[in-house]
């Protein structure tokens, strides 16, 4: 997932060093936002590895690292709805984070 996002950032004109620095600013603790209930099942203490969750995780990480979602053919509203569906919650309870 990290490599895919770095590749997307580089494809948008971000140099490799900056792309890695951006990724490094995103929290990687799976038990907290933005990963809990997306890539981490807190109840069962295990990774969520479904392709749907992984694809959404790439979008979340790309956005969090300063990427423009249009590159991934989505937008904040669509990603919010996608995450709400995955987490089985209301879109109003979803927050997208930027770390750069």
Tell me what the structure shows.
Helix content is 45%, strand content 4%. With 100 residues, it is mainly α. It has one domain. The chain has a two-stranded antiparallel ribbon. Helix 1 packs across helix 3 and helix 3 crosses helix 4.
Any low-confidence stretches, pLDDT <50, length ≥5?
none
Overall 3D geometry?
globular
Rg over alpha carbons: 13 Å
Helix/strand class: mainly alpha
Would you spell out the secondary-structure blueprint of this structure?
Elements: H1 2-11, H2 16-24, E1 40-41, E2 46-47, H3 51-64, H4 76-87
Antiparallel strand pairs: 1-2
List keywords for this structure.
4 helices; 45% helix; mainly alpha; single chain; 2 strands; 100 residues; two-stranded antiparallel sheet
Offer a concise description of the structure.
A hairpin with a 4-residue loop joins strand 1 and strand 2. This protein has 4 helices and 2 strands, in the order ααββαα.
